[in-house]
Protein 1
Amino acid sequence: MDRNTDGNTDGNSDRNTHETTHETTHEATDGIAVRRVYDAPEPGDGTRVLVDRLWPRGVSKERAAVDEWLKEVAPSNELRTWYHKDASRHAEFDARYRQELAQGPAADALERLLALTRGGPVALVTSVKSIEGSHLQTLLDVLRHAGGTGQTSP
């Protein structure tokens, strides 16, 4: 089996498998930036944290260049599947996702992420094409409202 330049064995490379959209990054506000995993790390990213439940298809660990993978901070598989069937349910998705972030492993992962944001710049790394309408919109809101207060109630 031949390997291409990014380590994939499926015959596709990151460059031609995943389209780039006009919204590939969200510039840092309050020390938190959003970066697509398919793009190169940027100076000043700080700690790079993958915040997707699933590992991005076709991306090696070296290419992703993430310091941590907090998959528990992403929506559950059930919630993600439910929402992807009908994106018009964003308001209900947002409420359900906030409930998930308030308990169990998701709350622990959120607390870890908050601790990282208090320690310096953080780049939330994801495979989503657009922040708008994704779990990142809610996660950013939760992180920014919790700020440095130590409170994690979404």
Note: Helices lie at 14-17, 61-64, 77-84, 90-101, 104-118, 135-146.
Protein 2
Amino acid sequence: MWPCRQISSTPTEMVKANSTITDAIALWVLVSASGASCRKAPDPELERGDALFQGAVPLSARIVGHDQDLPRDTARCSNCHPAQALRAREPSSVASASPVETFGPVLSRASLTRPAPRRGGPASRYDQAAFCALLTGGIDPAHVMIPQTMPRYRLASQDCQALWTYVTSL
């Protein structure tokens, strides 16, 4: 992998960066021919959030009023909020042409952080603390209780932060 530093896209720009024309052309040809690119290093928190959301890392949750935990495959977020995975994998024209039915609302940076009235309450927006309070206690940022069909999760603070990082990356 190439080191992540700014490489000019044309030989002329490379010359301006104190390279000789020959060196600049050689480097530009080498980089162009190899297909090398500077890729962002994976974010472990984002990857963990994705794994938690999709159920690759199981979550522990209960439905209000029940004494037993939900089966692990049932507690994954993507069961009720699948649009994120489809939106990330399909071109927008396909996604809009074939809408997906979801049980829960779409979760994304825009849907969570933009002020909006929710469940009959006043306009509110989520931050990480409000998101985690909703997942564990069932209370939204406007202090309105969410439906009892939404599981209440037992999450370590790092896992809740990872989920927040993931859903706000969408």
Note: The radius of gyration is 22 Å.
Protein 3
Amino acid sequence: MLNEVQLLGRVGQAPELKKLDGGSTVATFSIATTEKWKDEKGELKEATEWHNAEAWNGIADTVSKYVEKGDMILIKGKLKTEKWEKDGQKHSSTKVRVTNLHLLPKGKGGMSDQDKQDVQQSKELLEYLGSLPEAEKTAFKEKFINFKKFISEENLNKDTAGFLGF
């Protein structure tokens, strides 16, 4: 089973950082994603979804230092649903627990063409990997981990690693 989400959007509120008693830190923020399409009359339509997100420890610190309201970011993580009861009413809230954060270039234009292409390729790769049978996913993960170890052992120079996208 797979619980993985990837969102590309704009931060809706300034992230809030909390330091917990045990020494952990958590940053909470919202991110807006917008879908655009043409209806049957050919008119452009748009719908925006708001997503709550939380990042922990090192990622939380990065979020609090570098992420501001309106910034375009790419987050990867997993969905986490909390349930509680108050005054006899059952409530629930779903958020993205961020495991990976990509800060995108700031500015009026948002992402460069290369950034857009990289994001699209990442989406396509994740979609492809998600469609693989479990045994093939496991084999891919093992090969990828071994490849990263190979690179981290400095078997490749920085130019070669950069060419490969690492």
Note: The two ends are 28 Å apart (CA to CA).
